[in-house]
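Minutes, project check-in

Agenda point 3 was the complex the collaborators sent over. CS summarized: three entities, 712 residues total, and the question is how they sit relative to each other. Sequences were read into the notes so everyone works from the same version.
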Amino acid sequence: MSVASENEDGFMLTGDAAGAAEPTAEMPQGWPEDEVRKQGAKAGDEALYLELDGWEGPLDLLLDLARRQKVDLRQISILALVDQYLTYIERAQDLRLELAADYLVMAAWLAYLKSALLLPKDEQEDPSPEELALRLQLRLQRLGAMREAAARLMARDRIGRDIFLRGAPEGLRTDRKTLWRSDAYSIIQAYGQVKARTAPRIYHVSNRPVMTLDSALDRVSAMLGVTLEWMEIRDFLPPHAEPALRKSALASSFVAALELARLGRAEIDQEGAFAPLRIRRLKEAVRQAVEA
Amino acid sequence: MTDDTAPDELERGLEATLFASDEPLTVEQLSAHLGDLEKSSIREGLAALQEHYAKRGVHLVERGKRWHFETAADMAHLLRREKEQVRRLSRAATEVLAIIAYHEPVSRAEIESIRGVQTSSGTLDVLMEAGWIKLAGRREVPGRPVIYATTNDFLDHFGLESRRDLPGIDELKAAGLLDPVDEAFEEAMGAQDCEADEDASEDAEEDAES
Amino acid sequence: MTDDTAPDELERGLEATLFASDEPLTVEQLSAHLGDLEKSSIREGLAALQEHYAKRGVHLVERGKRWHFETAADMAHLLRREKEQVRRLSRAATEVLAIIAYHEPVSRAEIESIRGVQTSSGTLDVLMEAGWIKLAGRREVPGRPVIYATTNDFLDHFGLESRRDLPGIDELKAAGLLDPVDEAFEEAMGAQDCEADEDASEDAEEDAES
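CS then shared the predicted structure for the full assembly.
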């Protein structure tokens, strides 16, 4: 970036731009970072702003100009500030300095603000130029406050510069030592578990009460022989069986009923889903008809 | 020839421990180190020691709840010439540091809205490397930006007992200068009707958003 | 609250300089540092300081013509503190210890075959560190594996007269300790204090074998 190098050659743009290029108390000119940032700018990683004698962006420049009004930032004349800025930018352009875009954007915006401020009040749109000016002023105040705070912070007695810590501290050392704790029961229990875990296992299949299909077939055919009426399938179950056996009997009886129906010896009926399943012996005649 | 009352064992222990330690110590650490003493007696001992050293060439100070010995500020002229160990910060870095310290926790966008320029990532890196700022989570707004805050080392380095001791922070707060522009703007517009600048916001909110 | 006479500026300067220096300093160095003062007055200042610190937790000492601060000898124990941390043996370590106790002397391969899982060397290290097991030579089989046995400390810690006090397999079974347990139950048992059934074991059988 050409500006940086030209400035280094003593091409002091600020010299007459504002007539008061002397650095403010908070910003000594020899601030070491200027070098750093110039290098940064050369490296191109900071292309977004361009340094003009150490200003960082338009707001920074504006703040510096505002300070030259030598009044409280709350009292500054925005119009005067705008003029100073625009003059500054014009000069830079006359000198064919390459200005970063945001300086020009700010210049355009300030030019607009200036004209709006000068127009009769009732022709203003929203937001009013006064409001825009106020916002700018507030921003400058905030930046100014932080700049002063930074300066006061840096001026404190700092460790390593004004204040020193002990040069050769012995250092504290804590050696950690683990005391392991356990007890006999844990040992015994752990051993039991190892044994239990690794012991060969024997699996038992428990003997559950079942009614086989054969016995169900016998049972159902025998009971069907007694009557011609419909009977619920539940009536075929052994009356006092334990629940497990009942379940098995129900399943077997159902299969037996299907088998009998297939053989044409019984018919099955159900009025609807989940309704009781009924079964009765098929009359001989019907049976023969079916067979035929 | 000073003629002191002999310090008690607790004071001697604290003195020895703090002298020997290569980092500042909290009351808790001191207590643990001295055999789990009551924190209240540790605090008493520290206060006594602090008083003892107040007039000496070395002071006992508390920074961010941690204690250490350091040379008295008025001895700087003796020590400075040979021992300048402080890295010099760029102006951008000092500004960013101040903004973080006075506004913390604060996002990069918030820093930039105050400074009016982009912050190079190098600037934040330098401050992180110096151990003065740290990531302090994310702000729960769209984009969940990372937010920054200062560290105990920051307090140490600048001789601050806590953030409350930041130079001028009370005045800045009272003047509303730590409030975001939008807030201050509303304030100012509201105040204009009644009458000029009543001393603006009292309870300055720090949850800035530009 | 000590009530000192305030130290003079020379003393304060010496104090700060010696404190901040990273090496012991000679009288000449100190003199140069403090603005070419008379060596005699430096010596006087050092003597005064030395006296002041004589009763404190930090002493000013001269070694080979060089002066420095150091922690008082009787405070040295504070600088190097041993912290004991009680930890409960892990499940895996407890199992390995139990196997060694029941089967000793036993090699790592044997331990693994009994446990049915690989054993990390860290587990054995922990038991060695605890002082409960020791190397007990090598088994005279191919590869000559190291074998482990329990120590007297083991018996001490676990309150056992001898390894014969450990209940045998039959007793374990009787106590329900051989029942497969689900993890939650295991957990619950682990939390419980060891109770009664310990002394159920009189003539512990050691015939254990997987």
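Noted in discussion: The CA atoms of residues 147 and 197 of chain B lie 32 Å apart.
Follow-up: revisit at the next meeting once the mutant set is ready.
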